[in-house]
Structures are given as structure tokens and as C-alpha cells.
Amino acid sequence: MNTWIKNPLAILAENAGGGIVVSGSRIVELVAAGATPRAEVDETVDASRHVIIPGLINTHHHFFQTLCRAHPAARDKELFPWLQALYPIWSRLDRDMFRVGARLAYAELLLSGCTTAMDHNYMSYDGLEDATDIEVQEAQALGIRATVTRGSLSLSKKDGAIPDDHIVQDDDTILADSERVLKRYHDTSDGAMIQIALAPCAPFNVSRHVMRESAVLAETYDCRLHTHLAETVDEEAFCIETFGYRPIDWLEDCNWLQPRVWLAHGIHFTCEDCEKLGRHGVGVCHCPTSNAVLASGFCKTLDLEAAGSPVGLGVDGSASNDSSNLMEEVRHALMVNRLGYKSAERITHRDALRWATTGSARCLGRSDIGEIAVGKQADLAMFTLDEMRFSGNHDPIAALVHCGANRADRVMVAGEWRVMDGHIIGLDIAGLIAEHSAAARRFS
Fold first, then answer.
1. Chain-centroid distance, C-alpha 420
2. Which CATH superfamily is domain 56-363 in?
3. Residue 61, helix vs strand vs coil
4. For residues 297 and 337, what is the distance between their CA atoms, to the nearest angstrom?
5. What is the number of alpha carbons within 13 Å of residue 341 lying toward its C-beta?
6. 10 Å Cβ neighbour count for 422?
């Protein structure tokens, strides 16, 4: 079936004022303003009220943390004290809580216009051994594209780290399960709906052996690698004290200074670090809201891009962002970067949208998503400008960012409508909120 999404109010694509034609899971034609499709059309969707952008792509999250929003134990703290407050709470997580936390995070992302979700889950332990499987199942149930990571913790309080002893795993268990989920779920084909990445948590809670062997598995199974790095000055001090060198040197020592890798946060990099990362094609996920909430610092997005690093966007865990809304993150990225670079001209709304689309796609190693173009996957987010906040705008695409769009009216993933009229098809949102809220109360 060929579907013509016709005459949008605005569209983030060149020469597509008349809309786009979707066939199967792909975009097959861009229609110029005033023209009609060359292909025969089976269905027409009137998009005259809609601003169409590529589906947003999230490149860093912790789904289970939706159960800890605005938790009083962690409010008004920076990263290390924040982790010290929350790990004892997170250690009570069970499978049912984990599943509903993932479901709500996927749903919230989807409603914000996100078509590819990513989760950095490191909570895999006795009783939650199938965490990766759960996240794959929940993504498939909602029809959202996902990069699910098999994360890990291998160092705990007994080793001088922060996590409770019972929520870490030994190196052999981590690596064996990493290979299991790669074999079972990782799809390297064009248009893949599920991909697996390997994601040891951070320098201060995983062994170098896990890092190095994960890099070997990534080469074997052609997958991506992800970890937190250079998020705080405390992390830098830890690396110097423990390893005798800075975080980027730890990355290199672990054989992770390579194009398969994308990092979360990447705040405390020098200009020389940025050049080194760029030379090796290492990507960085910018998490502006989380960085602000935890007062972690400012990511050198423009410097990293200029050096050659892909820069993507992520909402990060809800306990440090308190929202899984990627469209809101786009706006925050614009504001934070203008403050950080002290310039209103160097960072535009299109830069922020680029980070959340093509930049994020590059971080995930994908060339089939993130852009409205012929041959790309039909992943689309469509917003209306009917609310008071948009009244009087003179540029619909800029208005999405400047005026604070936060909920898509329609979302298409791989050519299938997943959100219609602001609602996820087939999902009982009220029931999900009630179940999720009940689970969150167990963390009180």
C-alpha cells in the first residue's frame, strides 16, 4: 500500500512541501509543493495541520528509574551522593517493577515523537537475569524501534564501589549473557527493529576485563558499545587515583577508542580529548537536562562535532531528568548550549533537532533512520500547533523547539501508525499509570 501524507503545514525535509509517500516501511517519494505523487496512491492522509519531522532517536536512558522520579532521598544532590542515595533503593527492584518501568518509559518516549528508543540498563542480577529480554518484549509490544543494551555492574561495596553486593554479577556471567542476547536478538539488517549493544556501566563500577572482552564480542557480532564517561569531576579524580590516568585514557586502555563506541555525557573532556575522540569516530550522547539537574557540567557539543564525533541526544534516566520526553530534551539542548557557548547564533533549533535525529542515528551506527529521504525508514513524528503556546508563530519548525512542543499528534514507526490523535494505539494509558504508580510506591 502506498500512503501519501499530503501537504504538511511544514516538513523538515528538502523539496517535500507536498508531503511524502510511504510504501511498506520506507519513504519512497518526496512530493514538491503543489505537485502530486508520481506513484499510484492507495491512501491519502491530510497533514495540513501537522509539522512533520523525522522520528526522534534517544541514545541514553535508564528505564527503571521512572520509578524514582523526584525521590526525596536523591533531590538536590550531585552524581556520587545521588548514586549513594539511590542504589540501596534500586536494589529492591524486581521483575514486575522493571517491566512496568520499561513499558512506561517506551510509551512516554513514543508520545514525545521518539521512534527509536535506547536503554542503558545495568540492573541484571539474580531474580532479574532476563532484564534484556523484558525490554525487547516491551518494545515489540508497542512497535517502537529499539537499541537495548546489555549493561552490567561487576564491582560493588565489597570492592569499594557504590552498588550493593547483590545487584552485581561476576565477569563470566556478564559476558556469557551478553553473548546470549546478541545471538538471540541482535539484528544487523537494514530497517532492524531490535538491536543489542553492550554497555558496562562506568569506570567506577565495572572491571577492565569486562570492558575489554565486551569490545571483542562487539567485533564478533557487529554491535555497538556504550558506557558513561567524563560525567563529573569526581569521576575524573577517581580514575586518576585508581588507574593513574584520566577517563579517556581508561577508555583507550580498554580498547574502546573506536567507532563502535558512543559515550553518555562526555562533559569533562579537554579540547585535546575532543580531538582524540573525533579522530577515532567515538560518538557522544548529550544529556542536557540530566547534566543540569545534577550540576555535572556542560558537554562541548560543537567542539566534538567539529573534531568528527557524532553527537546525539538522550533524556537519561528519569531519576535525574524526571521526564522521558525527547522533544522537551531538544528544547533544553538549545537553551543549555546557548548558555554554554555564550552565543545565540552558533546553536539553532535545527542543530538541536539534528542531534536528536541524524546525530543520534550516527551514534547508534544507523544510516537507515533519522532523516526524511527516499529509501529511509518511514519513522515520522507529526505535531499540531493548535495550542495557545504556538499562537502567533512565524516558523512552524522553529516553533516546535522555541515554543516547547512536547507531545506528538501522530507517530509512525517503520510505516505503521503507533500514535494517533495523541494516543498510543492499543495501550491503556490510565491503566499503565495506575500500575506504574503502585510499583513506584514500593520505593517510598
1. 22
2. Metal-dependent hydrolases (3.20.20.140)
3. coil
4. 11
5. 16
6. 13
